[in-house]
Amino acid sequence: MILLEERVRRDGIVREGGVLKVDSFLNHQMDIRLFEEMGKEFARLFAGENVNKILTIEASGIGIACLAAREFGCPVVFAKKSRTINIAGDVWTSRVESFTHGRTYDIIVSKDYLTEKDRVLIIDDFLAMGSALSGLITLVEDASATLVGAGIAIEKAFQPGGDMIRSRGVRVESLARIKSMSVENGIEFC
Amino acid sequence: MILLEERVRRDGIVREGGVLKVDSFLNHQMDIRLFEEMGKEFARLFAGENVNKILTIEASGIGIACLAAREFGCPVVFAKKSRTINIAGDVWTSRVESFTHGRTYDIIVSKDYLTEKDRVLIIDDFLAMGSALSGLITLVEDASATLVGAGIAIEKAFQPGGDMIRSRGVRVESLARIKSMSVENGIEFC
After folding, report:
1. A85 band by pLDDT with thresholds 50, 70 and 90
2. CA-to-CA distance for B173 and B154, rounded, in angstroms?
3. pLDDT tens digit sequence for B76-120
4. For the purposes of burial, counting CB atoms within 10 Å of the CB of B81, is it exposed (0-12), middle (13-18) or buried (19 or more)?
5. Which residues in A lie closer than 8 A to residue B30 (C-beta atoms)?
6. What phi, psi does A12 have (nearest 5°)?
7. What number is the ipTM of this complex?
8. 0.90 cut: is pTM over it?
9. What would the DSSP string read from start to end of A3-63?
């Protein structure tokens, strides 16, 4: 998606250690006009798939998921990163390793909101090592829901997550795929 | 807002200890059509205030904030609950006590995204004791931004947060104000 690639090129900041800072428009401050265009693109890519639920993970996936859900006309469910006293009853759960934060955590979705009747599109802001996406896919499989695919804003295609998930037979559509990036040479897209 | 009150009455579940469970449509599974109507109502209430930024807090405020921001044509900034390695540089910070989770945490917004040029509308899903809202107001004040007001989905008007915030001179608009609720007698709105 040219619009997103241009925005990443213009406002993204590459840091040492493979960090891409896009918090001016994607995951701290959020450009809703951009999200709306991204939502339309996901709706175009997954048209005819009868998506009736979008699954994402707190916190930075929620905004993109909500604007996409508006296009699909379906609700969003977001996986929570820790059990709270307001989530009672049975939950689907899986384990996610965060390389950004250097820790492992459990993600949780209530069984009430992810069932075998759902045709699920997973939406997230980043795909790098694939741990969060893999955890979300496990939730969908455990619920015996149908996984339509995954819509990602930015994929770090030089990291193994995308290939790993696609090799499991999952359709992954990333709106901007970064082939390489460095502080010296900037960002190159696939 | 009748639409939201009716939804709370229909799908909200009152639990012992003053807990209102609305996670089927508001803060776990999210009804985007409803959020869109709530966004339009906030836009009507704060019309002419030249809001150029919506501030919320992760995670359950983000969805409502994004659909509201679409109506205002402005970006959303969400306060994060812990410092991550991807947030570098100077931040505004304040302390929030969570009665739901029984702990205290810091909330953080980058100084890049909250400045004296901003006319800020705070959006959140719940107002009860007012601790989260109070923390967000502190961020706005510290940034010398202009606080237009706060737009809340559900206010527990029998708890002191709303009165406390309004007594500080802040305009608070809650779409559904609960006067009383109990497992035995259900929910009564103001």
Report:
1. very low
2. 10
3. 999 999 755 455 569 999 999 887 777 888 999 999 999 999 999
4. middle
5. 66, 69, 75-78
6. -75, 145
7. 0.94
8. yes
9. HHHHHHHHH-EEETTTEEE-TTTTSSEE-HHHHHHHHHHHHHHTTTS---EEEEETTTTHH
* Number of Cβ within a 10 Å radius of residue A84: 15
pLDDT band at A82 (very low <50, low <70, confident <90, very high): confident
Note the Cα B142 to chain centre separation in Å: 19
CA distance B128 to A42: 37
Measured CA to CA, the distance from residue A152 to residue A58 in angstroms comes to 14
User: Out of B36, B74, B77, whose CB is closest to A28?
Assistant: B77
CA dist list (Å): A59 to A62, A114, A152, A190: 6, 19, 15, 27
What letter would DSSP give residue B22? -
One-letter amino acid for residue B102 of the chain? G
User: Are residues A75 and A66 in contact, defined by beta-carbon separation less than 8 angstroms?
Assistant: no
Pairwise CB contact (< 8 Å): A113 & B24 = yes
Q: To the nearest whole angstrom, how far is the Cα of A89 from the nearest Cα of chain B?
A: 12
What is residue B28's DSSP assignment?
Answer: S
- Residues in Cβ contact with B93 at an 8 Å cutoff, skipping those fewer than 6 apart: B106, B107, B108, B109, B139
Query: Is residue B101 within 8 angstroms of chain A, CB to CB?
Result: yes
Given a contact cutoff of 8 angstroms between Cβ atoms, the answer to whether B35 and B63 are in contact is yes
Measuring CA to CA, which residue among A132, A88, A94, A90 is closest to residue A115?
Answer: A90
Q: What percent of chain B has pLDDT over 90?
A: 88
Distance CA A173, CA A11 (A): 22
Amino acid at A153: A
Question: At A176, which amino acid appears?
Answer: A
> Which of B155, B151, B130, B134 is closest to B20 using CA atoms?
B155
Domains and CATH numbers, chain A: 2-189 (3.40.50.2020)
Whether the CB-CB separation of B17 and B100 falls below 8 Å is answered with no
